[in-house]
TrEMBL record:
Taxonomic source organism: Bordetella genomosp. 8
GO molecular function: DNA binding; DNA-binding transcription factor activity
Source domain of life: Bacteria
Pfam families recorded: FCD, GntR
CDD domains per UniProt: WHTH_GntR
Key words of the record: DNA-binding, Transcription, Transcription regulation
InterPro entries reported for this sequence: GntR_C, TF_FadR/GntR_C, Tscrpt_reg_HTH_GntR, WH-like_DNA-bd_sf, WH_DNA-bd_sf
Membrane spanning residue stretches: none
PROSITE patterns per the UniProt record, alphabetical: HTH_GNTR
Protein name according to UniProt: GntR family transcriptional regulator
SMART domains with a match to the protein in the record: FCD, HTH_GNTR
Residues of the HTH gntR-type domain: 7-74
Amino acid sequence: MPGDMPGPVNQRIYRILREAIVKGTFPPGSPLSEKDISERLGVSRQPVREAFIKLGEAGLVQVLPQRGTFVMKISPRRVEDGRFIREAVEVAVAARAAQRVTQPQLHAIAGLLDGQRRAARANDTASFLDLDDAFHQAIAAAADCPAVWQTIENIKANMDRVRYLSLAEVSPLDRLIEQHDAIYSALRDGDAPAAQAAMAAHLRELTISFEPIRARNPDWFGAGDD
């Protein structure tokens, strides 16, 4: 519920709805009603309307005059643009983190990696992906630029939707763990070039897995330029 989360009400509602869309609770074409959501969450319609605007800016919903607000299909263009921007930012972040990371931060990052191993053994993809976000956020914190993660979150909504579409079947979790382990090892060794290379390889995984995911879920994707 919004009252249990930090931040302004409209931002809290945005995060709730973003998560529901990303995880497929609201699939493409689902109608979203200001009235229904405001009643369900116990808030006025104004912050819901503001959350809808932000969801539209993220490419997650579309407002159709005289018809309503609907969840959009995944835009391949937005996925690729987000991946390109994220790679440009996070590769630089990884290099900086390798030069600045502290032992307590390394310990925390290693703990997240161990958590991913446990999630993979349990075939718990949802927890695995939550830990994936935490892993990348921890690296941004180690680079002493935590605000970067907010920027990344704003551009990766459609990327996240792809990740939740049978990602475990297309990109084996063990392979993603190996990639995270390579990033962690570079950070531990203070090797900035290796951290850059490992992060770039990891983020390009989505390019490899995108077409198989799209082929298995054609109704979830728009045209290439959407």
